[in-house]
Structure formats: structure tokens, C-alpha cells
Amino acid sequence: MRYLLVFMFAILLVITVSILNISKLPDKRQPTAVNGVYELNDWDFDNDGQVKLNGEWEFYWGRLLSPEDFVSGKVEQKDFIRVPGSWTKYRFSGSNLPHEGFATYRLLVRSNSSRENMAIKYRLVVSSCKIWVDKKLVFECGNVSRDKKEHKGQITPQIIPVSLGKSTEIIVQVSNYGYSDGGFIVSFALGNIVQVFNARRRLEFMDVFIFSSILIMGLYHLAWFMTFMEEKSTLIFGIICLMVAIRVLTMGEMLLYSIIPITALCEKLATFSLAMALMLMAMFIKSLFPEETPKWFVRYSQVISTLYSILLFLTPQNINAAFYTVYEVLAIPCLPYLYFILICSVKNKRNGSIIALTAMSILLIVCINDVLTQLGLLRIGYFIPQGFTMFIYVQSFMLASKFSNSFRTIKILSEKLISIYHIKVQKEEMLLKSELRTLQAQIKPHFLFNSLNMVIHVCRISPQKAIELLTDLSNYLRCGFSFKNDEEFIDIGREILHVKSYLSLEMARFQNRLNVIFDIDEGIKCNVPPFILQPIVENAIVHGLLPKIDGGTVKISIKFSKKIILIKVEDDGVGMSEECVESILKEKNEKAGIGVANVNNRLKKVYGTGLKIESRPDQGTSVTMKITNL
Length: 630
What we know:
Elements: H1 2-22, E1 37-39, H2 45-48, E2 51-52, E3 55-61, H3 67-71, E4 79-83, E5 91-92, E6 95-96, E7 101-110, E8 115-122, E9 125-126, E10 128-133, E11 136-141, E12 158-164, E13 167-176, E14 183-184, E15 189-192, H4 193-227, H5 232-250, H6 255-259, H7 263-288, H8 295-314, H9 317-331, H10 334-347, H11 353-374, H12 384-440, H13 445-461, H14 463-482, E16 490-491, H15 492-510, E17 514-520, E18 527-528, H16 534-545, E19 552-561, E20 564-571, H17 578-585, H18 595-607, E21 612-615, E22 621-627
Parallel strand pairs: 1-7, 17-19
Antiparallel strand pairs: 2-15, 3-4, 3-7, 5-6, 7-13, 8-12, 8-15, 9-14, 10-11, 10-13, 16-18, 19-20, 20-22, 21-22
């Protein structure tokens, strides 16, 4: 269904653009010149439109005749040649004429009445010409000459204002040196000057529209490639669009010849765009259907297209014509092989193969139509630019569809990865909360037993001191059990109170073996994750100081600096090795328990950085944590 809608839109686009082309075709069958005479007695330019001066023109090979030559009666022998068409197809004295040479064309246009404000539309005569209308030189393009050295080829499309009498003589001198064809390649059009100008303006608009559309597509795909260089099909397709855009300017109203006044360069650019088409199409098909397109075919097309393109710009026009014939012989067999590749792709059910084959078939049909129209066998009109437009559009859609499918797949995979990540994060959060609950429940029975025994002992000596210790124990238990499981942050004052209560009990228990130093800035207010300080302090006492006979000192500092709170726990205990530090952070040290590793993991999750532990054997340990995002 999606492909059907695309084709319907493409056909609608081509039909809309083609209205400009079809509208110029008259409903009435146009006259045809017979034996050098073009009859317009039954033609009404106002109602029937302009005409093409096609048919049999008088032809004088090897002679450059002027109107005076025909008036004086010096011209006796005459032949007839069909216009439009190259004179190389004309047989003279038993053989075809060469592409180089000079000749004169002559046509008599007869009408019932004289007509003013008429115009002849001239587009292409290869490769220089002079035009007389009723003995008046009305147009000259290049330099017509019998001598090859004095000849100068030039192509300049032009509208030539003329007046028609009842019998109007048109004489055209033509010389050609260096081009593969000579003579009238495109028809002369005759009509009133308003019709001719309006028709040309309409066709120029169509050419500019098609050129701009294809150019924008090309630049878009090239920009796409610049942002995603792994997809070479966009680069190749972008270059194809640029080549087709150049080709469009050399066809139709031949706007490139008006933009670039150097005829030889325009011809080389036109031929270059055509020569590169084979190589680019082979590379493009290879990028779409790599399994069906053999490498040798791509290499073959690259070699012949590249070699001919180099020779095209290094050799003069007359030598290049011979090379172009060789190129055609080598390139034409590649076209059916391209079709064979597409058919194999369709057979193997490759994505986009049907639409690619259909687009190529439509382009072929359009080319055949234009050839038959040029030969006069059809009167539908010329549709090569529209065919290129539809081909480019369909191929562009196919690329867009391919990338859309890729992005859709990436989106689905991304959603799955995000879902997996969320599940992983949830599991990690559940694990951290589980460990936090474990820390809350990790008030060991022997710690309570020792604390209560110590209070009983102190009661006998100092009831007041016992009351203080019971208060510390109460605060310690209240802080330890009051945290909610889902409470992510608490006030730092509660965390400090929890640690001080714990240390008061431990100092009363170990007396001179434990010294505590607090270095806390006043006025610090912030929220921190619960249970990040007490496990570190407990680890410093149990595993750092108590293994020493004389005990030691633990220092707790909390400093505010540049929107960062630094919390540091230092001890002068037995210290540990680097391997032991790593094992503690990775929960591989059973003696340290899960407390330090849990704090480290929760700090990483909240602040992006964990604990920084510095320690050496017999030199103590320093544990630092940073509280950011205040």
C-alpha cells in the first residue's frame, strides 16, 4: 500500500510538470515540408499554435550558398534531406556523409497571406550556422567556414524575430568540425512572437523546476552522507542527482549554454554527466543489492567511465567523438545486465527491489518514447526530464524507506535497551536498599550486650555518666532504626548525631585506647544519603585502631569549599595494602563487611564519584567522600 501511494504521488508530480510540455502540442496535425516546400495555407497560428519546420529541405553538400546564388540561377543540382536529423545519416554518391564538413539548407514557406511579428525558435544546429530569411541575414552563431582552421563552433539558443510573406525563403549555412553529428539536430519552430516567447518561458520554468528539485535532492543526500559517512548509498545517489541536474540543463531549452557561453565546455559537461551515469548506477545498485551485484561488474563500469571521462577533458572534440563511439560499444551491454541484477533482486525478495526495477523500466519507456518522437513516429511529446524526475524521486523514496526501517529498528532496540537498563537500575536500587536495611539491622547482639554491661558497670561508679551513656545508646538506636527504607536523603546533622552517639559509647568502652577528634565547620546544612559516615568510622575503629595494643586516634572532618562538602575520616591505625583497599571497595573483603562497599556504590549512584581511600601498612588510613549538587 505504501509503495502504491508513492507511485501515485510520483505519477501525479510528473503529470503536473508535463502539462507544461504537453500544452505546447497542437491538436491539429502539423504540415510537413515536401521537396523543400512548406505549405501553411491551412494553418492558423492564432488558433493552431506554432509549427515545427520539419520535413524535406533542399540540401547542398559541400557548398556554402547565399541568397544571391539562388537569385542568379547558379544553383542547378539540388538534393533533399529530412530535418531534423544529422547529415551523417544521409547517403551522398553511394555513401554516408562524414560528420565533418559544410552544407547549405534551403526551405520555401508558403502561406495565403503575409504575417508580421513572427519568430523562429532556434535551439541547436551543429555546430555553427548563418540564417537568412528573405535575403536578410537574421542570425549568426559561431563562424561558418569551408576551412577547418577558421571554423568556430558555438551553440546559442535564440528566438529570431521575422516577417513572413506569401512565399518566404529560409537559407541556413552550416559547418561542423569536431562534433560527431552535423546539421539540424533539433527542429526550427515557427509562430507568432508572443506564442514563441510564452512557450519558451513556460518550458524554461519547467527545466528550472526539474533542475532545482533534483539539485536539492542531491545536496540533501550529500549532507546526509556528511553526517553519517558509513552509508555510501547516500553519497552515490547524491552524485547521481548532481549529474542528472547538469544533464537536465543541457536538454530542453538548453539553459546551460546560456549560463556558460563556452560551447565546448558545455558539451563536455553534458557528455561527462552521461558517461558517469553507468558507473554511478552500477555503484548505486551495488550499495542497494550487494549480494546480486558482482564486484567485477562495478569495476568494469568504473574503468570504462573513468578512462573515457579523462579522455573527454584531455582530447579535442574531433578526437573525442571516436572515443565516444568506443565507449558506447563497451557501455551498452551493461544496461541489460543492470536489468538482470534487478530481476535477480526481485526474485530473491530483496527490500526495495520491485520499486527499483519499476523505476528503471519507466525511465527506459520514457527514453524509447523520446526516440520515437524524434523520429516522428509518435506525437506524445518529449519526457526525458520528467522521466529523470520520477526516477530520482522513486529512488529517493526507496533510500528514505530503507533508512526509515533502519531507524525504526534502532528505535525498537533502543527501547529494549532502555527497558533493560531500567530493570538493571531497579535491581541495583533494590540491592542498595537491601544492603541499607542490612546496615540498619547490623547492630550486633554483642555490641548491645557490651554496651549494656558497660552502663551497668558505670551505674555503680557514676550514675550521671550512666545516664549520659544511656542517652547516647538511645540516640544511636533511634538514628539507626528511624531511617525509612525509601528515604534517599537525610539532614547531615542527623548523620553527625548518629556518629557522635556511636563514638561516645565506644570511647566509654575503650577509654584511653580510643581518641576522637572532630573538625566540623559550623553552619553546614545539606542533605546526604543515610548511613554514609557511621560505617566508615566503625571500620576505622574496628579494623584500624583496635588491632593495635595502644589503640589510636580517629579524626572526622567535614569542610565546605566551593559548593562542595568534603568529608574525611582519618585514623593512625594499622593501615592496609592497595590490594586490600580494592577488595573492600569490591565487597571481596569479608572482614570489612558490606558497609564500606555499600557506601561507595550509593555515592557513585548519587554523585558520580565514590570513596577515595588512601592507606599504607602501619601508617593509617584516610577515607574521603565528596558531596556535590548542593
